[in-house]
């Protein structure tokens, strides 16, 4: 058997080959392969990457083996090169930089995160789903924007911005949250910054304009509660305001004025 190669058996009894390499007292699995030659090829590529710095993310380690055989997957190369250069083994395709890191899908396709997020993304693989970036957490798919307090319904450019214009840069200093609550929109009105609350019911109704986003978020909740009491059968999202005590919330809810149009809509109770 070639160095770094060993056999394994599937449940149906089919024989296949696995490859692994040891580096800095760490045993690293390189994957499973249909033939001994392919598994050996993977081992030699990994050995070249780990011991020769000329092999970088940009330059593939193709020379030590038969080019007719499949090369190591890109994400595995990222893992090996990062381990070689930075001395830290990370199972996800992360390459460490100074105070930040790149999370790679391919050489030209990567995202930038703060070093504070390293532990999280070392243990959670990013998945693309319907134009969103998600991770699997406790059996659920979670949008990574939630780590910034950004809701699933948020729209880039309206509810949040990338300060430097790079939509792949998810460092905290680069994320500017404009609207953090459902139905709340920051805008300029008569030369002042206000927070406009709107609710959708066969078109958008303006609930009111308020000095703070907290007031606007509570006004949205009040409008939704009013419509539900009137019998409008719709699941309106609820804004949660964790910074307010129960009494503070109740007082604000009671005192805030909402549009007369909302209050005077015809009841739909049976």
Structural commentary:
The strands form five sheets. This protein has a three-stranded antiparallel sheet, covered by helices on one side. A three-stranded antiparallel sheet has the order 4-5-6. A hairpin with a 3-residue loop joins strand 4 and strand 5 (100-106). It is 24% helix and 30% strand. Helix 1 (36-51) packs parallel to helix 2. By secondary structure, it is α+β, with helices and mostly antiparallel strands.
Name the descriptors.
270 residues; alpha+beta; three-stranded antiparallel β-sheet; 6 helices; 14 strands
Quickly count the helices: 6
- The percent range for strand residues is 25-35%
Q: What sequence of helices (H) and strands (E) makes up the elements?
A: EEEHHEEEHEEEEEEEEHHH
Our measurement of the CA-to-CA distance between the termini, rounded to an integer number of angstroms, reads 78 Å
Major beta-sheet overview: 3 strands, antiparallel
Our Rg estimate from Cα atoms comes to 27 Å
What is the spatial order of strands in the main beta sheet? Answer: 1-2-3
Poorly predicted ranges (pLDDT <50, ≥5 residues)?
A: none
